[in-house]
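Fold this sequence, please.
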Amino acid sequence: MHDRFLRACRREPTDVTPVWFMRQAGRYMAEYRELRKKYTLLEICKTPELALEVTLQPLRLGMDAAILFADILLPLEPMGAPFEFAKGEGPVIHEPVRDRAGIERLRVFEPEEGLGYVLDAVRLIRKELDGKTPLIGFAGAPFTLAAYLAEGGPSKDHLAARTLMHADPGAWRALMDWTAELTGRFLRTQVLAGASAAQLFDSWAGALSLADYETHVAPASAKALAHVHDLEYQTTDAAGAAVTRAVPVVHFGVGTGELLGAMHGIGVDTVGVDYRVPLDVASQRVGGDVPLQGNLDPALLAAPWPVLEAAVRDVLARGRVAPAHVFNLGHGVPPETDPTVLTRVVELVHEAGA
């Protein structure tokens, strides 16, 4: 297996710095835009053959890992909270969950039952990759799912979620228990279906104070990840012998610079860092002995090459402070990005990170 990414997550030596990009499959690719003329986002997610195609499209640019093409909100529909993607508005949940009655309407389900199409896609992708490139499975963290449920869609401050957290702590704990169980089961079945790593996305945790995160969120995230800590995957060592390794877990959040230490503390191998905190500073915040992932500002992908090159080299230099570094963006690939720029970045990372 071409496992630079997995080795870095395990704090093992790599020949070069591994690189992949969040949202590396999607709107910036002409092939994807052609598909979107025929299918909606949900249709692609729910058709394993299309999800396979889109997941594999960016690998021609040289990335060291594939990430499943899916959406963190897919589990909400079988959970009892249907949603749709409204044009210009993003996801809209038809019945927001803001009280005990709403929470009691939710249900925990077996992923094979409600999300079988995602797991079928994982199996197809794993077969197509044939062990040559690791596949990252992922899920939304309990707080991010709970925030979407409470807000009914995207939000700048997640006031409804934070209000429920403090106004009715019992109801909040019940909601987090639901989302933690859902996230944990979903991650576990993705790994069992063929993913060799798992990433937990806490997209909205940056709206929280450290105290609120530690008290009201971290226990649920830890509960979710407990579902995958016993899982392993098969690979080979330097001599070509078959070996068994624990499945690594990456945790990433947006605007979570003040939470990085607590995010690592829930039981993850690698901490993803957004573009707001330099990696050397982030390394100090997580204790100095944790592999890091990140964190080029996506806006720099549209800058002149000398500016972008200098920024890539700076991220690599700061990443060397950590025991291992997976190069990535500090958020997702913007839809206006030129794919040839990503290819040049990958080549530079591999060259300069040798």
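The chain has a mean pLDDT of 94. The two ends are 19 Å apart (CA to CA).
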